[in-house]
Design brief:
heterodimer, A: about 40% strand, B: Rossmann fold, four-stranded antiparallel β-sheet, 12 strands, globular
Chain lengths: ~450, ~250
């Protein structure tokens, strides 16, 4: 390894050994962190020579003196402080709030007795050993930031949903970052497990109070047991100065159903590393994503869909909207294993560029080892259609507004996939706000 | 109302108008006919302000203003309306939203009060009835998946909604069956008035059976080579365009 690179962050990870003295941390967590820390000392920092990082600069990680936030300020927050962040008029019955990477019970609103149980990694309540195992079996040998999360993780939610009642539950997993004087790295680590035939609507949000610089390095693992169904809405609304990286893994067992709508709007540097893994037959996954990149923003989506077993279907549709000097990286891959016959999979990336100084690097890929499959992939990059613009303007609609209408229409194809209306309205407002401010630094 | 003098225009290298003169007064209906490629549609689009068509010489005055100086949206607010031969599909843009935004943008530009949703819906329903348009088309995306006839009706709906001073209909009759042609024509006739002028750009005489013009002009090779009353259109129908273009050449 190259000793000169990544010294700051590596030293942080190696030095930040969960010494027995620091906190009364759960012993099993301490063991996991220690192991990850030993890995991180030898893992190369991502760089442009690695295919997965070819278009995504990570210099910030080496030039920023990140610290790990030991004492989270959530004690200082009360519900009225976060009111501006809450979804207006939402009917979400349950809310689990993490402030600066730590569970904030005082801000959370969780009902019990509906088949849903919440544990936290740092919490008092005993985490069943099965979940500890699931968290512990992660592969630490490969991905730097993932292993970094493991080395530094201090808290996270384990959400366990059973299907006994057969009822739908809604849960918002809300991340709030409160600005600190020094740049801080947060490493929340979540696990969502749906038992057989269970259903959940999960909203995963990343927000901030105030304009601050921080690095959110989150991991969320999802396990969908037989016949279970998850509607997953992901809203990345980080501070415009923030770095955001989320690692998402979804494992689908037989006849399970996963639907994701994601909207990545905030952050100076933002990346999603997602892996969808089909473990059981007749499962279905559907992902729609909107990626926004405006002035001084980089937004990266890396997506891998692994069809390991026969008879599964997947649809991935990601749209990028670029303005000013924004940059989008899309790398999407469908992999069909030799045994995964009758796979039906399609992946598609569309990009709309509003500025000549924007940049998009898109790479849809198919890797197929089975011979009886239906797969397609594609990518497009385009500008606003001059015919459409002229049509709108000839009807009296000023140019800027006509452009906004067409961009909104482009974005709405994804946003309209959100079924819950207050959430959909919130997402629409996010897009409109971004479109309204896009000209500022163009 | 509209005075076009010695208008010369080109699309890139290609000359399309070579010194065109036309005077249109309020209350008049003018038909502009001509063979394919004569420049009729280009004239319509130049008046609406399309980019990519360069005016090289001449002037267009509309209600005393230099029309060529105005942006497309300013022309619309000033009262120029172009019904497209091929109305553009706008996937993801709701038709009601589009119509309301357009009408209110024009009103704002003119310093008039905007219509609220209730007033707008009342107005648009009234106008839809006039052009026999199915109400559900309001909920759809603008022109997306509309049939040819539905697209043209949507154009005429806008004509009746915006009530422009000058309406330019570019081959509105093309691709319409007789029933659709009749309802579209009824829509156009309904907006005919002493304050309003209409320019019908058409290849065929058929439309003029339904909308009777006061003047008929023949456009060929970028200029108006003959003008007359509606009998000129009938004669054209009988004898073909060659009758005039050949006699011009002679």
């Amino acid at each position: 390894m190259n000793q000169s690179e990544g010294t700051l962050i590596r030293r942080l990870a190696c030095d930040h050994q969960p010494a027995e003295k620091s906190r009364d941390e759960n012993p099993w967590l301490r063991v996991l962190k220690k192991e990850a820390a030993s890995w991180i000392c030898d893992l190369p920092l991502p760089n442009r020579k690695m295919e997965a990082w070819r278009y995504t600069p990570v210099e910030f990680i080496d030039s920023t003196a990140f610290t790990v936030d030991e004492e989270a300020p959530f004690e200082a927050l009360d519900p009225s402080d976060i009111e501006e962040l809450l979804l207006p008029g939402s009917e979400w019955t349950d809310r689990v709030v993490f402030v600066n990477g730590r569970y904030a019970p005082g801000l959370s609103d969780l009902k019990t007795g509906n088949g849903m149980t919440l544990y936290t990694l740092a919490g008092e309540s005993k985490l069943p050993s099965g979940f500890k195992r699931q968290i512990g079996q992660a592969d630490l040998s490969d991905r730097f930031f993932f292993t970094l999360n493991n080395a530094l993780m201090s808290d996270g939610a384990v959400i366990h949903v059973t299907g006994q009642s057969g009822a739908r539950r809604r849960l918002e997993l809300l991340h709030i970052t409160v600005g600190m004087p020094d740049p801080v790295i947060h490493n929340p680590r979540h696990l969502v497990v749906l038992e057989n035939n269970a259903g959940l609507e999960l909203v995963e949000r990343y927000t901030s109070l105030g304009k601050s610089s921080y690095f959110n390095n989150a991991v969320i693992d999802i396990h969908l047991s037989e016949g279970s169904e998850l509607l997953h809405t992901r809203l990345q609304e980080e501070s415009e100065l923030a770095q955001h990286l989320s690692h998402l893994t979804v494992k689908l067992e037989r006849q399970s159903h996963y639907q994701q709508v994601s909207l990545a709007a905030g952050g100076a540097w933002s990346r999603t590393d997602a892996q969808i893994i089909f473990n059981g037959e007749h499962a279905h996954a559907e992902l729609d994503g909107l990626i926004l990149a405006g002035s001084k923003q980089l937004n990266d989506v890396h997506l891998e869909v692994l069809h390991e077993v026969p008879n599964c279907t997947s649809r991935e549709h990601f749209k990028g909207l670029l303005s000013a000097n924004g940059k989008i990286v899309f790398d999407g891959k469908i992999l069909v294993a030799r045994d995964a016959q009758k796979t039906d999979a399609a992946l598609n990336n569309e990009n709309l560029m509003l500025s000549r100084s924007a940049e998009v690097d898109t790479k849809p890929q198919l890797e197929i080892f089975a011979d009886d499959v239906k797969c397609s992939h594609g990518a497009t990059v385009g500008e606003l259609d001059p015919e459409m613009l002229f049509y709108l303007r000839s009807r009296g609609i000023p140019k800027a507004e006509a452009e906004r209408m067409l961009c909104t229409a482009f974005a709405n194809e994804v946003v309209s996939r959100i079924s819950e209306s207050s959430l959909r309205d919130h997402a629409k407002r996010m897009v409109l706000r971004r479109l309204a401010s896009r000209g500022e630094a163009a | 109302m509209l005075t076009i003098e010695n208008l010369k225009a080109a699309a890139g290298e290609k000359e399309i108008l070579r010194g065109l003169d036309l005077q249109v007064n309020a209350g008049e209906v003018h038909a502009i006919m001509g063979p394919n490629g004569s420049g009729k549609s280009s004239l319509a689009h130049i008046l609406a302000g399309r980019e990519g068509l360069d005016v090289k010489d001449g002037s267009v005055t509309f209600d005393g203003r230099d029309l060529l100086e105005l942006e497309p949206e300013e022309r619309a607010a000033a009262g120029v309306f172009l019904a497209f031969q091929y109305p553009v599909e706008l996937p993801g843009v709701n038709n009601t939203h589009f119509l309301k935004e357009a009408l209110n943008a024009q009103r704002r530009n003119r310093g008039e009060e905007e219509l609220d949703s209730v007033a707008f819906m009342k107005l648009v329903r009234e106008k839809m009835e006039l052009v026999s348009m199915k109400p559900e088309l309001l909920k759809r995306q603008v022109n997306a998946g509309f049939s040819g006839g539905e697209k043209k009706r949507n154009e005429i709906l806008q004509l009746t909604l915006f009530e422009p001073r000058l309406a330019i209909l570019d081959e509105t009759d093309s691709g319409l069956d007789i029933d659709a042609l009749r309802t579209v024509s009824e829509g156009v006739n309904a907006v005919r008035s002493e304050e309003r002028a209409i320019i019908l750009v058409t290849h065929y005489q058929r439309l003029l059976d339904y909308i009777e013009p006061d003047f008929v002009h023949v456009l060929a090779d970028g200029r108006i080579i003959r003008s007359g009353d509606k009998t000129l259109a009938l004669e054209l129908e009988k004898k073909g365009y060659n009758w005039i273009t050949d006699s011009e050449a002679a």
